[in-house]
From TrEMBL:
Keyword Repeat found: yes
Keywords, alphabetical: Repeat
SUPFAM superfamilies recorded: Histone H3 K4-specific methyltransferase SET7/9 N-terminal domain (SSF82185)
Comp. bias regions, Basic and acidic residues: 159-168
Keyword Repeat applies: yes
Protein name: MORN motif-containing protein
Provenance organism: marine metagenome
Region (Disordered): 143-168
Amino acid sequence: MLIIIKNPAPQAFLNSCKTNRLMVYIGFSYTNQLGTKVKYLLIVLTILLLSSFLTSCDKKEETLYGWEISSGLEWRTIGDKSKNPKYKGEVRREYIIFGDYIIEGQGSVTYPDGRQYVGEFKDGKENGYGIFTSSDGKKYIGEFKDGSSHGQGKLTTPDGRKYTGENK
């Protein structure tokens, strides 16, 4: 039996996350009927429990597309910007079952109808300071909480009117 332990894993396997992981290759060799020594790889086991298998990867830059599901939007790496909202910015990768992208940090979302948000995100929602531009040209610059304008901000309409104050 042959056991090889390597650390860290190849960068491509890490999916660009800068975390330590252990890769364990378990294999064996035997002599076949012709007397030739043959080596087989039994298992390629990646031990991620000590790094980020059940937790999360470091933040990284990603382009994602929003897909409507029953509980809201789910962000994936494939999509069509004419049909799906497009996000570009920082994400956190969750490895709970198959791996989900959680929008977190600085980024921008552009919707097919022309709406756009540029700013801070937390747990997949607009949180913190940002700029929202509607498809009809209204622009809100200010604070957001849980996906909505909340706190101090300034709204400018296409005809030039300005409103400054607190949103709740």
